[in-house]
Amino acid sequence: MIDVERERFEDMVIRALDSLPAGLGRVMANVAVTVQHDAGPAGLLGLYQGVPLTNRTTRYAGVLPDRITIYRLAICAICRSDAEVVEQVRRTVVHEVGHHFGIDDARLHELGW
């Protein structure tokens, strides 16, 4: 386990989001990405909560933003170096953004995320 300071971890999440292809960022809609500094639910490194873009209809309006939560302590617990944390943060961010786009766990795992 490695301990990464809160601000540095948040910066890793921002960098992971910034590393997404520009086209994806432009079509992400009504989603907030947050960092939770505890371990979160058992076994989860990140969590997407909301209505995926593929399920939104013309009736989708006036709702709270979807939420992607990245769990700092859960990620730090499985990593042994800063480099591993950076890579795991990126993998987790991409995985949860994939859910925002309607990609299920099975397909994300097939794609290596």
Automatic annotation (TrEMBL):
Gene3D superfamilies, per database record: 3.30.2010.20
One Pfam match: Zincin_1
Alphabetical list of InterPro entries matching this protein: Zincin_1, Zincin_1_sf
Protein name (record): Metallopeptidase family protein
Organism lineage: Bacteria, Bacillati, Actinomycetota, Actinomycetes, Mycobacteriales
